[in-house]
Amino acid sequence: MLILSRFTIHGHSMEPTILSGQIVLVSNIPFLFFRPKINEIISFKHDGKVFIKRIVKVNKENYFVKGDNEKDSFDSRKVGWIKRQNIIGKVIT
Amino acid sequence: MIKKIFFSAVSKVLPTKIAYAHCDIPCGIYDPHAAQLAAHTVIRMTQMINDLKVKGEPEFEERKKIIHQIARLTHAKEEHAEIVKHEVRVIWGDYFKEEHLRKYPDLHSLVFKIMKLASKAKQEVNMEAATELLEKVQKIAEIFFETKGLKPVRVKSPYPTGLDIILHE
Fold it and tell me: How many angstroms separate the CA of residue A67 from the nearest CA in chain B?
C-alpha cells in the first residue's frame, strides 16, 4: 500500500503550478478518509504510466482531469474520465 | 517551515519515480513554419522546372545536364511535398484537440485537401496545385496561431516564390 511516494515530474502540462523536473510527494492517506475533490491535484495510472493532473469534474466514481497548462495538456479531454480505482493519491506538495 | 523540513527529509529517503504531466511528446513544440517552408519549396521547384529552356535539338551533354537538373528538382519537390504532409499530420493529429475542431469545423477537410494537393503537386508539374497547397497550409498556420491565442499576420516572404508566409504578432 502506498503511503508516501516521491515522483519527479516529466512534462509541462501542470505548469505553472508544477514544473517539469520538479519533485512532488504523493500520498493515498487523504483519500482513505475523503473522496478526491474538484481542484485537487492527483496522481493516477493510465496505460501503465503514472500521471498527475487536476480534477475539474466529478461524476460518481469517475474523475475528469486536466492539466493547468490547458493549451498543452494530454488529459481527460483525450483519454476520458479516470476511474476512482486508478487514482493513486493526492499530490501534497 | 515544518512542512518544508518534512518534505526535504522525506525527499532524501524515498526513492524517486516518474510521474508524467504529459503534454504529448515532444511537449508542445509544434510550429506550422516547417510546413510553410516546405510548401514554398514545392512552388519554387515547380517554377524552376517550368523555367528550364531548351534551344533546338541539344547535344547529348546538354540533354544530360537538363535531365540531371530535372531529376534534382523533381526529387526536391517530392521530398518537400512529403514534408508538408508530415508536418501538417503532426499538427493535426498531435496538437489540435476537440475544442479546436468545434471552433474550426472545417479542419478535417482542410487537412484532407492538403494531403490531396501535396500528392498532386508531387505527381505533376502543376503550379496551380502547388500554389493552392501553400494557401491551405497558410490557413492551417492561421488556425494554429489563433488556437495559441496569437494574432496571425501575413507577410511577404523573403523567398524567390514571391509569396506570403504566415507569422504571428
Answer: 7
- What gap in Å lies between CA B7 and CA A79, rounded to an integer? 32
Amino acid at B68: H
Residues from chain A contacting residue B3 (CB–CB below 8 Å): 93
In chain B, the domains with their CATH numbers are 33-53+60-168 (1.20.120.400)
Can you spell out the DSSP letters for A35-65? ---TT-EEEEEETTEEEEEEEEEEETTEEEE
Question: Which whole number is the average pLDDT over A27-41?
Answer: 91
Strand, coil or helix: B17:
strand
Q: Which domains does chain A have, with CATH numbers?
A: 5-91 (2.10.109.10)
If one compares B27 and B161, the residue with the highest pLDDT of the two is B161
Distance from CA of B126 to the nearest CA of A (A): 38
Instruction: Tell me how close the Cα of B28 comes to any Cα of chain A, in angstroms.
Output: 6
Under 8 Å between Cβ of A12 and A68: no
Q: What ipTM is given for this predicted complex?
A: 0.76
Instruction: Please indicate, yes or no, whether the overall pTM of this predicted structure exceeds 0.80.
Output: no
Structure confidence by residue, pLDDT tens digits, B44-90: 999 999 999 888 888 999 999 999 999 999 999 999 999 999 999 98
- Spatial separation of the C-alpha atoms in residues A21 and A36, rounded to whole Å: 25
Cross-chain Cβ contact B27/A73 below 8 Å: no
Residues B21, A12: C-beta atoms closer than 8 Å: yes
